[in-house]
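Hi there,

I know you've been waiting on this one. I reran it after we fixed the sequence typo, so this is the corrected version. Both the input and the resulting structure follow.
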Amino acid sequence: MNNPDKPTFFGHGNNYHTTIDLTFINEAASRRDVVREWTVDRSWAMTSDHAAIRWIFDPSTPPVEASPHLRRNFKDAHALAFMETFWAKLDATIDVFEPLKRGNGALQDEIEAAAVAFSNCIESAVHETIPELSGKLAEVAELQRRSKEEQRSYGTQLPETARALFVAKRRFIRQVRKAKKNHAKEKLASAWKREYPSPSFDQGRGQTPVIHHADKCKLLREKLFPTPPDTGEDMPNLNIRRPGEMACPPPTRREVYDAIFGPDPKEAPGPDGITFLALRWAWWAAEEEFFLLM
């Protein structure tokens, strides 16, 4: 949400200004115009180098539920199948990468179109080649039924059934433990939401103690965050390069590689549940297109 050419950091004792503090809102909040009157307010910075960022939002706006994603069983997935599916889908949209390959500066809309196409190809390949991860009790019951039938027919259960039953049981146990832990956290959270009276604030000899919550907040702001003096400085133009300015070169191929292959492959960096393992496979299948988006 930050406005261009609007610094949020003002160095004490020098003329160094820059934008360090950023404000992020999700697409749903932006579409509903929930956050309004966003501004950088130096009067609330107090003694800090960082200016305060203020905004207003409507508390009556209904909350947006997070979109749940299906967990995927990457253990039973095949990298080659994923890469073939991903490349086939990427090849169908390869034209959107042409402006990036020209190397003379693609427009922001062209970069965004390529990024969306690349992300959609990864998501589609994941959905088509990575099986869903299910840990429901019904799966355990079905495997137990199959195991009993095999024991009646063959005198023992087949190795693949025994392995699948073992994995399903362990998965179900983990989900039960997780549900218990979440239930305990909710109970504790509800207990902490109870309102307890807090002691009054003693302002000193001859002054009336502060009792009410609003008055306590006002007193804390006045004592801990006094209004800073007006420096009279004008807002600098951040688009103009200055002597000694720290350079921000484009990322190298090695830096992008380390960012993809460094984290745990089981971790998912975004809300779609796509893990770093899928991103690694996408890098192997289309390294050049992946790097062009950086």
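Quick highlight: The two ends are 21 Å apart (CA to CA).

Best,
R. S.
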